[in-house]
UniProtKB/TrEMBL annotation, chains A, B, C, D:
Organism for this UniProt entry: Streptomyces spongiicola
Database matches in SMART domains: Semialdhyde_dh
Role description: Catalyzes the NADPH-dependent reduction of N-acetyl-5-glutamyl phosphate to yield N-acetyl-L-glutamate 5-semialdehyde.
Protein known as: N-acetyl-gamma-glutamyl-phosphate reductase
An example molecular function term from Gene Ontology annotations: NAD binding
GO terms (BP aspect): L-arginine biosynthetic process
Keyword Nucleotide-binding annotated: no
Reaction catalysed by this enzyme: N-acetyl-L-glutamate 5-semialdehyde + phosphate + NADP(+) = N-acetyl-L-glutamyl 5-phosphate + NADPH + H(+)
Keyword Nucleotidyltransferase listed: no
Compartments reported by the entry: Cytoplasm
Semialdehyde dehydrogenase NAD-binding domain sequence ranges: 3-141
Superkingdom of the source species: Bacteria
PANTHER family recorded: [LYSW]-L-2-AMINOADIPATE_[LYSW]-L-GLUTAMATE PHOSPHATE REDUCTASE-RELATED, N-ACETYL-GAMMA-GLUTAMYL-PHOSPHATE REDUCTASE, CHLOROPLASTIC-RELATED-RELATED
Length: 351, 351, 351, 351
């Protein structure tokens, strides 16, 4: 059994990590950390999880080194930056779910995360990316940075074009739509149910930092490339799950059949990515409700004759494949377990 | 491996059975039956379940006897009545999720299910009830009838009073609130999203047959008893999960402390019933969102000084503990597996 | 034009008052009061109301006497108790939407509102009730206390039984279901969208003070009477509108036909109460979505043979007939206008 | 009083027309037409509208000419094409809410509406467009075609750029998000509440015909122009209201300040278009919940430095400004009434 600590245990991603780890056959939850709710049990903080784990939330000190083989940081980026410095080289594996170490290029990091001071030497050691693309690097990494929920979706949507087909994407316009759990449980008036329900909230119509994260990552990739990449993000009226729509303009010629084949080929060894046709089932897909609670990302690619563009849709559960599930997937790879261990639950639908 | 067939594979309960059986370590899905959608694969009918099981929906004939050790009927009551007659004595175990065999008393059955003609000899052989109460009878039953979703909730709420404390419940008023999945996927205008969303729909303000089912069952129980039992049912604006509120008037004296103890004692060996205090966590419980996707039923009992009454709230996922999960629980018992096998998934919350 | 001031202008009821008063042909909004958001314009506080009224939120002093003919207090009960003392006898009409003056019996008030110290002489002068029942007293009242949202619904549901038919109601069990706007816009974790959406939240399973308010009021009424009256309240997954279900047990004999007639007769001169049959339209009614945005209260009465009980359902928009609309209705009566002036908007459905 | 007939009285737009016309001071509803539900009263078809108008749904014949001054067609496009031929020159004003006469260019019409055969001479006589842009032509038009809900939003979003600033828009990518009422009340499995709630449904990821409609219209406009215009449409988890996001690429230089000024100037005489800043109120705007039930269209324009693009967001209530309200607005203009008559209701929010 690999002993795992979760820090940021009170938050939504923290709760989801507890859910997944306690269901996992080869992981044992041995530490719960946080800066608030010290001394409280998970059941008080996560209404669904009435588990008696014998654990309460504790402050993080370097002494946890003896209790864990891996630590998952589901903390705000500034906290992750500090904790990574504390725990690196003391704990065999540190996996960070925040934005602290996602953008490698220093100037880009400073622009999008001006409040996050991180050690440069640490930043250089982090392996960042979706396990489908950088799994081999994760296998022996001491420090792993997981992509943001939107970034995971966008990367899985665009990688088959740039890395698979080697296309140069001149202009990419991403429209992201997310449920309210993407924003966490912060006390903001606009997030109260009366104002958030029924909303289409343009909360980041320009300047979402996940676009920078994806651009920075794809730039480092070998083939094709991405020119102008912009993103807008909206909150819509459900809780869990997101969809990104990537509208892609390229000067290169490619048709529907080639696209479909390329996506199937690119993901043929990756069970968590399901390449689907828009009309293959009762409801149009991809739709995040069809992946709810699971680690799947559903992807659909279409060539739009009228718009002379490629449309790539990708849906995932922001708390699973977009956060906790992907972290466990990385942890599996890091500790030599089959990638899907403990992550084989099917979507709960309808919900 | 126990070989299982699911009939009514296109419906919501059918889909949920497929989800649970394919995740179950000791069950193998070997047959999918139905009267519509013949030849279609599960993935076409259940958008979340993109599984390649090598099965398509087939008509049910007596020849399935060779392919299965157990059949689960997630069919309308009239169809279940027919199929039970066909399959009884041909298949080792037939479990029916419909109302066809729930009410034992013939006059009561005929009143509440006038359209369901069933063989009396068959009806007498069915073991009916929640596994927590009749598990020992299920262990060697060839025919099992599972309670309705509301009935499961009401039975688990009231049994500790009548069977545990032996109270005589003079008047019980049940108010049931359910999400839209309780109504299945039938093409009715009132169930279209624009008319169903935001609704509090009094769809069965009087005369819900689950009340008759529970009354009939509790009458056969040994201690205490239930006098006047009435129920009203409402559709509220979410998809999955229900809550029943049982308002109980009794002439016998009992206080909050005795009630709480009695419930804890009654369910101490039953992991799927979680006896909870209303304010024990972040949100008031029981709330069906805290059991979503799981086989739990959360129960809270309160003595209301002002109203001179007992209030018992019970929440469950109508498609899991109220249908497919409970059926798998019964199947486990029937085939000698630990009751919780394949049902240990934690709730997916928030969702 | 009657000049009106609204205090508590930042809240949901305050916003609804602004909406209704600015649409009203005979009322002029001349003052906006509050203790927070001083200096802010309505458009900043109420996203839908982008109105240029030339008003900003101001503290309330006795000097507003010169600016208004009536003041509407949409403030918390303790604040209303203070402001009523300040404004009574200085402003021709003070209408309070809070609970400060709803319960007349002093001991009952102190029990249910221990934190609300009110002047007894003032309390005795307030006219309390729904305009349908106490409109004649409102016509020349200087001080008016409007019922709570649930209390309005329960009173309109029960009055035809006690005051109309003169029945003695031995036991009344009320189950109230409300959208999230009933709780206002307070920063509570349980009211954040991720935790409140999809919920059936038993937030007041025992001891809701609206029951005390209704009991106190009906006790003062002349005929019939109410014995044991208890209430439980639930938050369900929409924003606006509530339904109360009153389950009534009486020893007196009455059938469906008498009940229906009695309700039609009782409300024949009251256009805002619509007596409806459960199945008269596309969806089961009463359903609060069918009164959304309007001042209607839809009422359905049924005799339940099985339960030997009467079931009365009443639905209203908690921010209109349950708050701001009812206050404007009272204001109309107070200032000699036809009761429905400015309140003739039809429901916005579906929404 | 102008006598008005509504055809397609059973549908959602039909119901909304009834709501608005019965609240209108200068319009009288004198005819309700349809092909189904003959003989039924509006209250049976529209649960919120319990009105006694003395009207039932009737088949449309040329004899209605004597009963109405104007007819509003809220019918499917093929039906509108037929009825327009029947009623033109018999009724002083025919206003069509369908797509039958929206696209003027014959080849484009035939491509996007292959099932709609219309008389060419009639098509040429229709005035099409949003009243803000073609109001002067509507003033004496006998035949008026109202834009689709998305098209209204897109046109109001883009016109200040092309017609106001005279920009040439090289590439426009539109992402439209709509509630479920946009799809009407058709019995489709995917529109049942269990499958539609919680969804982000990519129902028209490529090839939405509203894009063709807007392109055709803007082409006929005088200044600037639109190059490549493509659209994708999604159903999100609420009922009423839509948002379009127009991502615009142009080679011409323009900054945030110029854009904001241009939009304010362009709409300064048009009260139904509210030019708003994204962060001006409690929630990010434009958000359709802030226009619910009203005839407003909220518009926000932003220059995105990173993406070298212009982002224009426009939100409206698809049943009001996107259908019935806009039709009444056109009717007002046609009959010489102030444009806003009967349309001054403020948004119902939160709902």
């Amino acid at each position: 059994m690999t002993r795992v600590g979760v820090v940021g245990a009170s938050g939504l991603a923290g709760g989801e990590l507890i859910r997944l780890i306690t269901q996992h056959p080869d992981l044992e939850l041995t530490f719960l950390g946080g800066s608030s709710n010290i001394g409280r049990r998970p059941a008080e903080l996560h209404p669904g999880l009435r588990l008696d784990l014998g654990l309460t939330v504790q402050p993080v000190t370097e002494e946890i080194a003896g209790q864990v083989d891996a630590v998952l940081l589901a903390t705000p980026a500034p906290v992750s930056a500090e904790l990574a410095a504390l725990l690196a080289d003391r704990v065999p594996a540190v996996l960070d779910l925040s934005g602290a170490f996602r953008i490698r290029t220093p100037e880009l990091h400073d622009r999008w995360y001006p409040d996050v001071k991180r050690r440069t030497d640490l930043a250089d050691r982090f392996v960042y990316g979706v396990p489908e693309l950088v799994g081999d690097q994760m296998a022996d990494a001491a420090l792993i940075s997981l992509p943001g929920c939107y970034a995971t979706s966008m990367t899985l949507a665009l990688a088959p074009l740039t890395l698979g087909l080697g296309l140069n994407l001149k202009t990419v316009v991403v429209d992201g739509k997310s449920g309210s759990s993407g924003g966490g449980l912060h006390l903001r008036t606009a997030d109260l149910h009366p104002l958030r329900n029924g909303a289409i909230a343009p909360y980041a119509p320009v300047g979402h930092r996940h676009a920078a994260e994806v651009g920075d990552f794809l730039e480092r990739g070998k083939r094709g490339g991405v020119g102008r990449l912009s993103m807008s993000a909206y909150g819509v009226s459900h809780v869990r799950g997101l969809l990104t729509s990537s509208y892609v303009f390229t000067d290169e010629s490619v048709d529907q059949r080639e696209l479909q084949r390329a996506y199937l080929r690119f993901y043929k060894d990756h069970r968590f990515v399901r390449v689907r046709r828009n009309t293959e089932t009762l409801i149009p897909v991809p739709d995040p409700q069809a992946v709810l609670g699971s680690n799947y990302c559903d992807v659909t690619v279409m060539h739009d004759e009228d718009g002379e563009r490629i449309v790539v849709l990708a849906a995932l559960d922001n708390l699973v494949k977009g956060a906790a599930g992907q972290a466990v997937q990385a942890l599996n790879i890091r500790f030599g377990l089959p990638e899907e261990t403990g992550l084989t639950m099917q979507p709960v639908m309808p919900a």
